[in-house]
Each structure stands twice: as C-alpha cells, then as structure tokens.
Amino acid sequence: MLLQRDAELKIWGWADPNEKVTVRFAGKYIYTEADKKGNWYVLLPAQQAGGPHVMEINEIIIRDILIGDVWLCSGQSNMETPIIRLLEKYPEINISNNHMIRYFKVSTQQTVQSVQDDIPNGGKWFSAVASEVTNWTALAYFYAQEAYNHTKVPQGMLVSSLGGSAIESWISQDHLKEFPNLILDRVALDSLRYVEKDHGVHTWIQNDWDDSNWLDFNLPGTLRSQGIRNRGVVYFRKSIAIPESKEGRHGRLYLGTMTDSDSVFINGKFIGSTSYMYPPRVYDIPAGILKAGKNTITIRLRSNSRNGEFIADKEYKLKVDDFEVGLTGLWKYKQGLNLDAGTSYKSRLRNMSVAGSGLYNGMIYPLKNYSIKGVVWYQGESNAGQDNYARYLELLIANWRTLWNNEKLPFLLVQLPNFMQKNDMPSESGWAKIREAQFKISKIIPHTALAVTYDTGEWNDIHPLNKKDIAERLFLGARKIVYNEKVVHSGPQFQNYTIDKDKIILTFETLGAGLKTNDGQMLRQFAIANESKKFFWANAVIKGNKIIVSHPEIKEPKAVRYAWADNPEEANLINHEGLLASPFRTDNWE
C-alpha cells in the first residue's frame, strides 16, 4: 500500500473487545488496546517519502509499504474508465514498469440511511508493473505517472467513484440542509427502523420466555376475528406436557395449514418452516428436543395482507408413536412486527430514492482517517442541465475539507470535455452551464485548480479515451496549488467586459505570455447578442491582452459568450503557454 508522507498517520482497525494490539513500523512499536466494541487505532509520526517498509499488527504482516503522496480520486464514469480500454491508443501501457505508483479502488457501497465505518471487502492495492497495470482506471494511472515523473516521490491513487452518480450523492446530509428534497427525515427513518424490527427474534422462541402477559388466541381461526388486524409477524406460544417415556424421542408435529408463512420452534429449537400458504405443515421433531414435562411450541406466523389464519378442520397435534396431544384451543400470542405501523413513516420518506449522501456515507466517510495529499474530482455529466451545481460543488469541497480537518485540502477539478454533435448556430447548453459552475468555483474557492478539457472529448462517446492530456493539465494545477511552484497552470480566464458602441471589449486574467490562437487562425466560437437575447457568431480580434467582439448587424450589443456549447471543440483561444481559455459568458440569461 501507500501512505501519505509528512503527515501524522492514523492506523486503525477492529479486534476482539479489549484485545491488546501491537503495531510495529520503521523500527518502532506502539501498544494499544481495543475498546469494548473492538475498535482500536494508533498514531504514527510523520514519515519521509520512501520505502518499502514492513508493518506488523499483531500476527498480520503488511509488506511493500511506500510513503509518498496519496490522491483521493472521485466522481463518476470518466473517473472509472478502465485502462484496458486505452491499450491501443497508448500501447506503452502494456510495458508499464513503475512499481512506485499504487492504485486502490474502493468497492461500491451506497447507503442513504447512515454513514458506514468501513468500506466493503474486495479492494486491493496494485502497482503499475505490466502484470498489474490493467487493474487500474485510466485517469488515475496517467496522473500518477505524471506526478511521479515530476516529483520522483511515490504516488498513491485512492479511487472512490461510481459511474452515473450525481454530485448530491457525494455530499453529507449535514451539508445538504438547504436542499430539503435531498434530506431524509431522520426521525421517520429511525421510527421506521424500530417498527419494522421483529422484536421477537431470538428471544420469544425460548422455552423459558415469560409470556404470561400475552393475549389469548383460540386456534384454529383467523387473526382478524380475534383482534389482530395488521399485516406483519405474530408469535404464538403453547405449552404441553410430554411423558417421561417419550423424552428425547423422535416425533411429528401437525400444524394444519397457515396463511401466509411460518417458522416453528420447540423449546427454542428450530423444527421447520414453510414459505407460502398452501402446503400442510407436517414437521419432524428431531430426537433430543422433547423433554419430560413442560415443552413449549412457538409459531412465528407472517401475514403479508391482513389475511392471517390457521385453517379450520385440519390436524393440529403433536404425536410420538402411541402418544398424541391436541394443539387446538387456547394459545398465547404477541405481535412482533406490525408492517402497517410504518405506513405514515414511509410517506415521510418518499424521497428515499432521490435523497443525497448515499455514496458519501458508504465510500467517502469510511476513508476519513486515511491521510491524503489532495482530491481529484471528475464529475458533472449526470447533473448537466440542472441548476445548483456550483453550490453543490462548493458544499462538497467544504464537506470533505471538514471531514479531513483540513481547510486547505487541495481540489483539482476536471472541467467537462466536449461531447455530442456540434451546432451550426449558438445555442443553449446544459454542459456549458456545468463548465461555468466548475470555473466559478475554481475562481472563488482557494486551493482549487481547474483543468480545461473541451478539446479532449469525442462527440459520439461520453467516455473519451484521451485521459493523458487531462492528467497532465490536472498535475499542472497541482504544481501550482499543492507544490507551490511558480508556473502558469491555467489558460486565459475571463475577468470583465465593457461595451463601446457596437463592440464588446473583454479582459482576461492568467494571460501568461499573452493571448493567441492554438492554430494561428482567427478566433472561433465567440457569439454576440443584443437585447433580443439571440446570439450570432461574432467577429473576435485579439488586441494586446484584450479581445474585441462585434457583429456587423448588431449595433447595440449586450452580451458575449465563448465556447458556450455541448461540443465547442473548435474554440481556439489559448495563452502562449498553450493552455485553453475556459468557456464563459457575460450574461446570466436563462
């Protein structure tokens, strides 16, 4: 595995309650003890980059541990793209021989109801040698290679992502409070859990259970006729006497026919079950269960539609050879599960399928103690065309920084690549709105960097193969905000505009060595509109560090848009460092 350098390391796990735990690492040992629930942890002092190391935790030995930089990679399917899809495009993957970069994929766990303490089983660390590299996802591989080649420090990619996931599922309930439709009613959920719990499991079947305060039931008969009107589970108990001569003998239990399903116990021992209403209930009583004197029969009857019944004119008896005892007449009963009691709570939980936080609960929260260098976030396709993305992204960053107790935790954001067919005329675009939200957040939230990627996509594939260029641009952002290098990490960023008669003049930040086009041709993908809000392709000219936009038929322009499309691949504004300008608009029209 790979652990984060220059940071205190929390090593945690589970053991038997109060078990003594010894952690040995780097020539030192630390003693601790599991608590009453079996939880334990130790804190290791910050370590320098290097390795490999060995860690011993009691009898467990973990070999080949490197110390370096760990990146949490999350998002949806483009973060999940398997590297095996890229072997033809990048044949060098087949001969990869880098043991200094490592990869771990968190197995899927979506739990809307509550946070989880552990990730699911199945995850495994892989290095990037040829025999293991095909287990990787593509972006993680190229980013790790780029980071290692530059820093010469081991790199660990901790990938926790899920294809098709929306950003809301990666944010905690506490951070989604301003969006009521995404919040579960916790009181209703806890109440539903309680009323949907079978309170008789394991206890009411026992021979010595006190059922003196249970109600009476005359068997056979319908549950409804004797006051049990709810769907659910009802326990019925009856004690009988067995003669000493039949103690421990094999017998047979005849319980007529019931509606719907049943499980039967004698003296707390399981005898048999039937999963539906029609078959006659004839159960063998294994040798050794019956005892001389008092024996208690318990029936756990489940009724799914308020039609629970012990059918009349059937045999209800216990028989051991020549001994027989009838089982009709008075029984004791108590309801263990009332399915109808949850109806009102379920109505308050109608948003269960659309509530947020499920992936945060299952795939981010369990990682909270794992020290990381920063986050790589590639997501947005599932939210295209929706509002609130900028706010969601802002909340996600705040949420994860709180979880890792690091208000400066770096976030490297992938702006959505180009996708779908190009439009001949300027048009509205849900993908452009997501790109705008991503750009906005990268501007207003410190310690974030945006990789602009609208030249890396494929119009007919939402999962483009060019993950290598994206990784290079992401790491350029890391060099700036994580490693504090003096480097131009961004293309031109729109700053402001003024209107001068029939022209709109645009100014930019992060100019680097100045503005230019990436092909030496005229600027493309600039659109202009007047108060009619109808956009036309515009003439755009670079003048020093500004761009002048106009159209011969628009005398009173009001707004300009650049690369505002699902697929703006022809947009060609860059700085002299070769980095693309982020798409933008000067208006806020809907």
UniProtKB/TrEMBL annotation:
Keywords: Hydrolase. Residues 356-453 form the Sialate O-acetylesterase domain. Signal peptide: none annotated. The keyword Thylakoid does not apply. The keyword Transport does not apply. It comes from the Bacteria. PANTHER family: SIALATE O-ACETYLESTERASE. This is Beta galactosidase jelly roll domain-containing protein.
